[in-house]
Amino acid sequence: MAADRTANGAAASGETLDFEAQARRSGWRTIRRVAPYLWPADQPWVKQRVCLALLALIISKLIAVSTPIVYKWAVDALAGEGVAPLALGAIGLTVAYGIARLMTIGFQQLRDAVFARVGQRALRMLALETFKHIHQLSMRYHITRRTGGLSRIIERGVKGVDFLLRFLLFSIGPLVLELLMIAVIFVVLFDVSYMAVVAVTIGLYIWFTFRVTEWRVKLRRQMNDQDTDANQKAIDSLLNYETVKYFGAEQWEAVRYDRAMEGYEAAALKTNYSLAFLNFGQAFLITSGLVVVMVLAAIGVQNGDLTVGDFVMVNAYMIQITMPLNFLGTVYREIRQALIDMGEMFELLEQPADVEDAADAKPLEVSGGRIEFDNVQFGYDPARQILKGITINAEPGQTVAIVGSTGSGKSTIGRLLFRFYDVGGGALRIDGQDVRHVTQDSLHAAIGVVPQDTVLFNDTIRYNIAYGRPDADEDEIIAAAQAAQIHDLIANLPGGYDTQVGERGLKLSGGEKQRVGIARTFLKNPSILLLDEATSALDSETEQDIKEALSAAGRGRTVLTIAHRLSTIAEADQIIVLERGEIVETGTHEALLVNNGRYAQLWHRQQSEA
Fold first, then answer.
1. Cα dihedral 183, 301, 104, 335 in deg (nearest 10)
2. What domains lie within the chain, and their CATH numbers?
3. From the CB of residue 419, how many other CB atoms can be counted at a distance below 10 Å?
4. How far apart are CA 561 and CA 403, in angstroms?
């Protein structure tokens, strides 16, 4: 039993050491990632501001260290134990003391003001880099991550950078500089024993602070995880507000959220208890060192070796040391937490995209819009193939429809065309160019997509339509809305095109959202049109109007339409029938009905349901 406990203890100790070593490596890696934002090679003004801020910092510390000496002179002058320098009396020295303190604060504020622009620029650049990188990550990543957790990681990471830039540069460095200066003064003006006591006190204080803080970091990480989980559940529930109402699940959602918050509460309590222990331990060490030094000074005064002014000066220096050391405890804890938060964000930045432009990728050149799926194979999971060697040729100007039962792979074809994923086997070409060898920007610009579920931004109708081409003028926006059969509806709204659509477009009906999405694609004016159940949210009358508009928009373009309602694709030039990732039939509507195969079964079933 004892051997087991020893072995388990050794294992636990090894795991702790591994965790601490990993945390330190992660911290240094994070600092190295932040450094270029403080010293960019292509921005000399940033370097100038950093240097000026450091100069102001050094001057403020020199004045701060000199201030207790002026204080000593003033006290000695009042006690009649010394000669005031420069023939200044007690009043003059007191005024000089006040000026010195004011200059210390003044240079500190100058330092902060000079560095503020550097910090804000770094914050903005890092936030922009993170935002752009998230948009570059692949669909596979986004569908496996929760938006709430992702946004919280970014929020904490950016705040961590802000804290690190302000405190790492202007707290740790200045503290070390100030401690060295005071140590030299103690050796020169007093005795090495004073410096020894201060050195031991500071050493014990730093050791205790770092050890306890490393323990608290693990607790804080658990608290962060619980906070992220609760935030995810809250956002997920609010985004699905209608579903919660439909199923009367308000109480269930409240219980689910409360369980997550219960875990956060327990982790937060542990964090608070450990903070109380840390604060008391720091106070004990600092107070012990202060008392020992003050006793040494008091003995010196009693023996006549020191003046009252010396006693006061020693006390002033110890208080001057105590304040930044107390600050060090807070700063170190926050820096460690900031490094953890930033580490999560930098891990996000280092997350590679599944789909990236090839090194020699060229812009897509669309001459006719011929789409070719050549023996394409694909699976979201390698163990489960979705498409099993399909071959589709859509000639320029043709409308090719893809139909099939749920799960047959219809929508996957659209995602591959837009290159949300790369094919697992075979090739996908547009006008003979493999989409893996062209830039994603040019590919996306050439394809217009009307999805099954149009999601709108929480902005105006005008903004959402103009999203297809932000530089479009008012006439072009109105023309796109007219083509999508929604202009009259918009014109009758109190706000017209300035009407707010609400989050995800919830203030509009499903059909209205769909028509705004169609107008947005019309405005983009792409060479290739991908319609993914584009009329699924429309009533029969509106569907017919939209069919005519989509037909007009498809003239001269290659149209790939993914449909569930077979009535919407009866006039397609070619219909592809998919089942379980394989093509089972190909032909026109009439030919497939005559063939009396799978398409005919689906057609007759839908007609009977209608």
1. 50
2. 39-349 (1.20.1560.10), 371-456+506-609 (3.40.50.300)
3. 20
4. 9
DSSP 238-302: HHTHHHHHHTT-HHHHHHHHHHHHHHHHHHHHHHHHHHHHHHHHHHHHHHHHHHHHHHHHHHHHH
- Determine the Cα–Cα distance for residues 244 and 235; give it in Å rounded to an integer: 12
* Contact (Cβ atoms closer than 8 angstroms) between residue 566 and residue 606: yes
Spatial separation of the C-alpha atoms in residues 349 and 344, rounded to whole Å: 9
Work out the number of other CB atoms within 10 angstroms of the CB of residue 76. 21
Q: Between the CA of residue 282 and those of 125, 210, 219, 428, what are the distances in Å?
A: 37, 11, 19, 66
Residue 490 and residue 481 in contact, taking contact as beta carbons nearer than 8 Å: yes
Contact of 530 with 371, CB cutoff 8 Å:
no
Tokens of 431: 């006008």
Closest CA to 346 of 29, 40, 41, 36: 29
| Number of Cβ within a 10 Å radius of residue 258 | 13
Residue 20 pLDDT: 47
What is the C-alpha separation between 44 and 64, in angstroms, rounded?
30
> What is the rounded CA–CA span in Å between residue 479 and residue 497?
13
Q: CA nearest 524: which of 480, 475, 555? A: 480
Which tokens go with 335?
């820096």
Q: How far apart are alpha carbons 527 and 559 in whole angstroms?
A: 9
Beta-bridge partners for 560: 400, 530
CA 153, CA 147: separation in Å to the nearest integer? 10
Question: CA 522 to CA 526: how far, in whole Å?
Answer: 8
Cα–Cα dist 168/161, whole Å: 10
Strands 399-404 and 574-579: parallel
What was the pLDDT predicted at 189?
83
Q: Determine the 3-state secondary structure of 37 from DSSP.
A: helix
3-state secondary structure of 361: coil
Instruction: Give the number of other CB atoms < 10 A from CB of residue 402.
Output: 26
What local confidence, expressed as pLDDT, does residue 3 receive?
Answer: 43
CA distance 355 to 26: 27
Contact indicator for 465, 519 with CB cutoff of 8 Å = yes
Q: Name the DSSP class of 87.
A: G
Burial profile 508-543: b = 16 or more Cβ within 10 angstroms, e = fewer: beebbbbbbbbbbbbbbebbbbbbbbbbbbbeeebb
Structure tokens at 74: 């003033």
**Cα–Cα distance measured from residue 393 to residue 400, given in angstroms and rounded to the nearest whole number:** 9
- What does the alpha-carbon distance between residue 232 and residue 175 come to, in Å, rounded to a whole number? 40
Give CA–CA dist 88/206, Å, rounded: 40
Q: Phi and psi (nearest 5°) for 573?
A: -70, -30
Average pLDDT, 10 consecutive residues per value, the chain (610 residues):
41 42 54 72 81 88 88 82 64 86 90 84 79 71 60 74 70 78 85 87 86 79 83 85 82 87 86 86 87 88 85 86 70 73 75 79 89 91 85 90 85 87 90 91 88 82 87 90 86 88 76 84 87 68 68 79 82 89 90 88 80
Q: Is 464 left (phi over 0), alpha (psi -120 to 50) or beta?
A: alpha
Q: In sequence order, what E strands does 525-580 have? A: 528-532, 558-562, 574-579
How far apart CA 424 and CA 69 sit, in angstroms, is: 76
